[in-house]
Design brief:
The protein is of the alpha/beta class. It has two domains: 163 residues, Rossmann fold; 108 residues, Homeodomain-like (Arc Repressor Mutant, subunit A), CATH 1.10.10. The chain is 48% helix and 15% strand. It is built from 14 helices and eleven strands. It has a seven-stranded mixed beta sheet, with helices on both faces. InterPro entries: Class_I_gatase-like (IPR029062), DJ-1/PfpI (IPR002818), Homeodomain-like_sf (IPR009057), HTH_AraC (IPR018060), INH-QAR (IPR052158). This is AraC family transcriptional regulator. It holds the Pfam family DJ-1_PfpI. GO terms for molecular function: DNA-binding transcription factor activity; sequence-specific DNA binding.
Length: 314
């Protein structure tokens, strides 16, 4: 079962190793959810650095130039995301292989993003592991590296090795890591921030057709925050029994439909408290509470503070 509430995990340090030709999309989908998790939790859960093999700037496939924070050889951390994207074959060779093998001794987890899997495999760092890569390269990858079990999946987590098939999958992967390490409540909140309609898939990492009705239930909840629907009606609308919805949502998100629905409504209330001057009574109504006192009690139980305290501090 997934964790619903956020944990007290220590801050994690990520390195993002960029090569000329990296994908802006993949980079943004990797770091923006981390930034959002920090913002929404009010804590520094993640820190990241952009790295390169050399000290000079790195240019993306669309011409965006990034000045790395440091060279790879100077940095250690919890996870290294290797991100070459386009022209990845030009970035292989003994120097890259040696740098990645050395980095594997300093980083707890090595992750190949998009075509980064190829460079990890070339360095021998995926031997005996399940792995994926951008699907256009999957056949060549499996032929070139028979000691790696190539899989046509959005992402693969196999011990201390992570591989990811592309930019959209990078978002799913990072959402999964946020949910795993800090609870599905935070992952769901990040998904809301990015207006991800398929919220369950985003932080379950592609839970598949078995969770399609959970996605539909979440969409219904998000569409009816001001006038909440009864849970039995939500179950009926998604074509499942209430018991089936309860069971699947607990399996996917680690919480009951009622808990998830309450969190969505209170997330809205917190946003309105922080970003508007609306009276608390009006905010309560918009979040589906007829009684402002009831909303305040629920708010305090969920977030450990009151709406007025948040407003006073902002």
């Amino acid at each position: 079962m997934q964790k619903w509430t956020k944990s007290t995990s220590a801050m994690q340090h990520f390195g993002v190793l960029l090569f000329d030709g990296f994908s802006n999309h993949c980079l943004a989908n990797t770091v923006e959810p981390l930034r959002a998790a920090n913002t929404l939790s009010g804590r520094t859960l993640y820190k990241w650095q952009f790295l390169s093999l050399n000290a000079g700037p790195v240019t993306s496939s669309s011409g965006l130039q990034v000045s790395p924070h440091d060279r790879l050889g100077n940095v250690s951390g919890d996870l290294l995301a290797v991100m070459p994207s386009y022209g990845f074959r030009d970035h292989g060779g003994w120097r890259t292989q040696a740098s990645l093998r050395a980095a594997s001794q300093r980083f707890r987890i090595m992750a190949g993003m998009d075509t980064g899997s190829w460079l990890l495999a070339e360095a021998g760092l995926l031997d005996g592991h399940r792995a994926t890569i951008h699907w256009e390269e999957l056949t060549g990858f499996s032929e070139r590296f028979p000691e790696v079990e190539a899989c046509r999946e959005r992402y693969v987590i196999d011990g201390n090795r992570i591989t990811c098939s592309g930019a959209m999958a990078a978002f799913d992967l990072v959402m999964h890591l946020i949910g795993r390490d800090h609870g599905q409540a935070l992952a769901l909140e990040v998904a809301q921030l990015f207006m991800t309609r398929d919220s369950a898939r985003s932080h379950m990492g592609g839970a598949g057709s078995a969770s399609a009705f959970v996605n539909k239930a979440l969409a219904l909840m998000q569409e009816h925050l001001e006038t909440p629907l009864p849970i039995p009606e939500i179950a009926w609308r998604v074509g499942r029994s209430q018991k089936a919805l309860e069971s699947r949502m607990r399996a996917d998100l680690g919480a009951s439909p009622a808990q998830v629905y309450r969190r969505l409504r209170l997330n809205l209330a917190r946003k309105l408290v922080s970003e508007t001057d609306l009276p608390i009574g009006e905010i309560a109504l918009r979040a589906g509470y007829d009684d402002p006192s009831a909303m305040t009690r629920a708010f305090r139980a969920e977030f450990g503070t009151s709406p007025r305290a948040i407003r006073a501090a902002s």
